[in-house]
Amino acid sequence: MAVQKRLLTKLNDSYTAFGLLLQESLRDNKTLLVGIKEAQALCQIGLPQAVYVKYGEIFDALVMAFNQILSSEARKNLREITQLCKELLLYIIAELTKEKNFKKEIVFLPYKAAMWDSLESIWKASVDDPEHCHSYVVPIPYADRNPDGTAKEWHNERNLFPSYVPTLDCETFDLEALHPDVIFIHNPYDSCNKVTSVDSRFYSDKLKKYTDKLVYVPYFVLGDPQLDYDDPEKKEDNEEAEENIAHFITTPGVLNADLTIVQSETMRNVYVNVLNRHTNAPEGYWEEHILGLGSPKFDKVAESRKEDFELPEEWKRIIRGRKTILYNTGLTAMLKHTDKFLDKIKSVLETFKAQEDVVLWWRPHPLLRSTFESMHPELLGEYDEIVSNYRQEGWGIYDDTTDVDRAVASTDAYFGDWSSMVQLYEKTNKHILVQSIDDDSDCV
Fold first, then answer.
1. Could you tell me the pTM of the whole model?
2. Average pLDDT, stretch 236-251?
3. Using an 8 Å Cβ cutoff, are 4 and 46 in contact?
4. Closest alpha carbon to 348 in 332, 361, 337
5. Are the beta carbons of 359 and 318 closer than 8 angstroms?
6. Which of 100, 250, 312, 332 is the most exposed place for a label (fewest CB within 10 A)?
7. In a 10 Å sphere around its CB, with 0-12 CB exposed, 13-18 middle and 19+ buried, how is residue 247 labelled?
8. What angle do CA 313, 429, 224 make, to 5 degrees?
């Protein structure tokens, strides 16, 4: 337990210092008293209140005894009081060494606020269990990348997280000193993403040194491949389907994590099979390190209701009681159909602009513009112009906020690229139509 280790270190240091100071002028030294008080505060934070009570009394006695020594109240009984302090310190160290009820310290290191839903339900579970967990949310900085891979601009979205999520400043949060029991991350790429990169201080290989357990939860969800493991003749087809998403799996975050939590048992099997083929890990290693417990993104969609969200007045004016269509433009479609992607967007916008009974709710992928900027800068100006014209015309909604769940809950149907948004929208049981970049017929 992280708290237990820090607490015992502090108490053992105090005991050692106490022994040395007995030979000098203990009355003139207040360092020990400060150390004891810090240990008491750490003990109170790290244990359930009912368990802390018995230790609190001992700490109170230690503080009282040290105060007597420092204030010269113990002239006649100095030897007895110092001996009592030594015994109390030894006793509390022995008892805390055996203590099994220390809370687990859990640190969440999200980077983009729009992707917080991939960790939120896990964080909520820890917050709802204060007797066993103490959690911290520490948003970390990330940079958009230039085409040559250098950092273009740094961001920290701490101020964009929901108001009910208390966050801490990563620049003053000492992760190494804390050494939490668990660290959760949702960015697996480290230096391997051409579009963005989190600060290298928070790459997964470094984080492993600062925790007992590094856990990766994908910020995305994928469609579960349709596989038939029972039919030996389907082996090659199964492997081909698995390799189609291998680039999502063989990332530094997965390789360095002690545990990876994925959206389903089907996806767990895919991860295990891909990793067994691509790594030299011992037999059974990946079976133990990949868990198919489900995605927190699904949890968020399941609990979100349209009534839970307040829309801007301008959006209400645009909707005016009409049906809303969520239009999602994603990264994969842009990279695969770069030459046609912008023409497709223009075509869709023109089509919906002419509709009187529905409203378009356009929500680009949070990294779409950054991807243009990094990988296809020659198209960035045209993309920006499309966005600017759409917003100025004011006939539809443009949603570049961090709240993807509001968009899913508040719209009546989905239209757009095949992406993780489709997997989320399926949980709502509302209509879904995936656009074809090569064919305009789906716009009608």
1. 0.83
2. 92
3. yes
4. 361
5. yes
6. 100
7. exposed
8. 120
